[in-house]
Write a structure and sequence with these properties.
- The complex is a heterodimer of chains A (285) and B (342).
- Chain A has one domain.
- Chain A is elongated and about 75 Å long.
- Chain A has 13 helices and no strands.
- With 285 residues, chain A is mostly helical.
- In chain B, the strands form three sheets. A six-stranded mixed sheet of chain B has the order 6-7-8-3-9-10, sandwiched between helices. Chain B has a four-stranded antiparallel sheet with strand order 2-1-4-5, covered by helices on one side.
- Chain B has two domains: 226 residues, Rossmann fold (3-Layer(aba) Sandwich), CATH 3.40.50.300; 68 residues, Alpha-Beta Plaits (2-Layer Sandwich).
- Chain B is α/β, with parallel strands linked by helices.
- Chain B is built from twelve helices and 14 strands.
- Helix content of chain B is 35%, strand content 25%.
- Chains A and B meet through helix 2 and helix 6 of A and helix 2 and helix 3 of B.
């Protein structure tokens, strides 16, 4: 039997190095289209961060002093990078819920029976979530500007900050991918997300100056938390107050926040991309 | 060479400290000649879905080998995927996409050009009478429409080999029959098809040959007629009014049947294998009437999966209730599928 008689009547292409990109893009478009079909999902995903910005700014703002600053907008400038990172960290839950849903509905089986790159479905999911994050970030930034948050150090550093943030969000998405492929139900995927992401984002410098955490070991946790590094990097790049004013010396990971944040994102990707692809290869609903 | 071949397939789930080991596939051999339909018949948890998952490269077998058009499913999964279409037990369509978008997406994932994918989608929608609903999100579709869309998705590249996992489970009888017509139409073009089902009638109607599976093993194989001959074809079931005349009636019916009548005195029932169909039914009633034997109930029963099982294994099909009671002590592999990921 020759390969000719084996071929289906409609030729199946692919196999080249660009196949992965093509396949991932087709899946990305499918996921994005799905978001536009459920506008309520997009609306709610941006209402929650807006609510957080307003609640923290107006409810806690007066009660949380930020060392080295004065005035009522000081906390809001401190807060916004924290809210950004927290909200985008939750993309991990979005990704795992999306994949758990696909798995549950048998779509992953369908994808796995097609001659597409093994990473395409996961890359398509995380990329679509990335675009959704971009939108949410835009909404939050506008909201932040309204309540008094500003970027002080120019366009280049501003962009660098946004890139760092979006890279971190993308990395978090891949942690979510592993979780989404490991649980049996959509509900579990959702609950698990909240269980680990809330502590991860709160045991950090995102909402309060890290030096106010108590007991002391919590400060060490916060100092080494990837969320803290990313938040600090943003505050530094955007010229927002960081709550370390007056400290004798900054903890090492905070002093080198941008590099540490980059390192964390790279490490997360290096571990969770291969892990999730391996899971995908053998997963079943 | 057969289009689909399997030799000694074994798949074991669990076997950890917690879960008892379940041999979902316990040495399955299959061979489906090109251009024919094999019906894999068995109850829930028999291993049908596991077999399909192995053959479609979704699951690695623990032992044995399988190939599609000569390509090993374990060693050449990507090549195999180019040649197969799979339509699963749960209609795997994206409910937020329209029918058309679903099919175009699948075409694009087979690396068809945009235009080619759109053209093919339109063809399939037409063929499966989904054109009117083509641009509605598929979540608005009825169960039958979803199944048709799912099946259409499996046919996008006109693959030479198609796997259908319980294509009509959960459909109402009318929709089921419509689905049968669709499936029967597929093989006219020379497609090889493996179909799993719980319904003997379905296998009978569609399959060229049938393999009966239970507990991960093929316990019988042959054409529908061969199997039916083995289990004795139709049965005449008569309940007489008067217990006193039961023996007399049984003797009369025994003469009409292909084998001796079986009598169940407690419910005044007589069961007798027959081959004459409705004609024979009338004859039986006439004779009993002539002898003045009253009849409470009468039925001509076609053999069911239950009969096949009763005949082949000496026990009835194990339903879910029995599993839940732990009577069989065999967790259903379908439920245990996730274990495979470990």
């Amino acid at each position: 039997m020759t390969s000719d008689t084996l071929a289906p009547p409609i030729p199946v292409g692919g196999g080249g190095p660009l196949t992965v990109l093509h396949d991932a893009w087709v899946v990305t478009l499918r996921n994005l289209r799905r978001m536009t079909r459920m506008p309520e999902m997009v609306v709610f995903s941006s209402i929650q961060p807006i609510m957080f910005v307003l609640l923290f700014a107006y409810v806690f703002g007066g009660a949380i002093p930020v060392p080295g600053t004065e005035g009522k907008t000081a906390y809001r400038e401190f807060l916004l990078p924290g809210i950004f990172v927290q909200t985008l960290a939750f993309t991990a839950a979005t990704t795992s819920v999306g994949l758990a849903d696909d798995l549950h509905k048998g779509l992953i089986d369908r994808f796995r029976s097609l001659p597409i790159a093994r990473s395409a479905v996961l890359a398509g999911r995380t990329t679509a979530d990335w675009f959704q994050n971009l939108f949410v970030l835009l909404v939050m930034a506008v909201c932040g500007l309204v309540v008094g948050w500003r970027i002080h150090d120019g366009v280049l550093k501003a962009l660098a900050g946004f890139l760092l943030l979006m890279l971190f969000a993308y990395a978090m998405s891949w942690i979510g991918a592993v979780i989404g492929l490991s649980v049996r139900t959509v509900e579990t995927a959702n609950t698990i997300g909240f269980i680990w992401i809330f502590p991860l984002t709160f045991l950090s410098n995102a909402f309060v100056p890290a030096r106010t955490l108590s007991p002391l070991w919590l400060q060490t946790v916060a100092d080494w938390n990837p969320v803290s590094a990313t938040v600090q990097a943003l505050r530094h790049l955007w010229g927002n107050p960081d709550g370390y004013a007056g400290a004798a010396r900054m903890p090492w990971p905070i002093e080198h926040a941008s590099w540490v944040s980059l390192f964390w994102s790279a490490l997360i990707l290096a571990v969770f991309v291969p892990l999730s692809v391996r899971k995908y290869r053998s997963v079943s609903a | 060479m057969a289009a689909i071949e399997a030799e000694g397939l074994v798949k074991i789930y669990g076997g950890s400290k917690k879960a008892k080991e379940v041999r979902a596939l316990d040495g399955v051999d299959l061979a489906v000649p090109e251009g024919t339909i094999l019906g894999l018949l068995g109850p829930n948890g028999a291993g049908k879905t596991t077999a399909v998952r192995v053959l479609t490269t979704l699951l690695r077998p623990d032992a044995g080998r399988a190939s599609v058009l000569g390509l090993d499913v374990v060693h050449k999964p990507t090549q195999v995927r180019r040649l197969i279409g799979l339509s699963g037990q749960y209609a795997a369509v994206d409910e937020n996409l329209t029918g058309r978008e679903n099919l175009v997406m699948v075409g694009r994932l087979y690396h068809m050009g945009k235009e080619a994918a759109e053209k093919r989608a339109a063809e399939l929608l037409e063929e499966f009478t989904l054109t009117d609903a083509a641009d509605r999100p598929s979540k608005t579709y009825s169960g039958g429409m979803r199944r048709r869309l799912d099946l259409a998705a499996a046919l996008v590249v006109k693959p030479p080999v198609i796997f259908l996992d319980e294509p009509t489970t959960g459909l109402d009888p009318r929709t089921r029959i419509a689905m049968w017509d669709v499936i029967a139409g597929l093989v006219k073009g020379g497609t090889t098809l493996l179909l799993t089902t719980q319904y003997l009638e379905e296998a009978d109607r569609l399959a060229d040959s049938i393999a009966v599976v239970d507990h991960g093993k093929v316990i019988a194989r042959g054409t529908a007629d061969q199997l039916k001959a083995q289990i004795g074809g139709e049965r005449l079931q008569i309940v007489v009014s008067d217990r006193e005349r039961l023996a007399e009636a049984a003797e009369m019916l025994g003469r009409l049947g292909t084998a001796e009548a079986r009598v169940q005195p407690q419910n005044r029932e007589i069961l007798v294998p027959v081959s004459g169909g409705a004609q024979l039914l009338m004859e039986a009633i006439r004779e009993l009437d002539a002898a003045g034997i009253g009849i409470d109930d009468v039925a001509l029963r076609r053999p069911t999966l239950d009969d096949v099982f009763l005949q082949l294994t000496g026990r009835a099909v194990e339903g879910e209730e029995q599993d839940a009671d732990g009577e069989s002590g065999q967790p259903k592999p379908e439920v245990e599928r996730q274990e495979a990921a470990r």
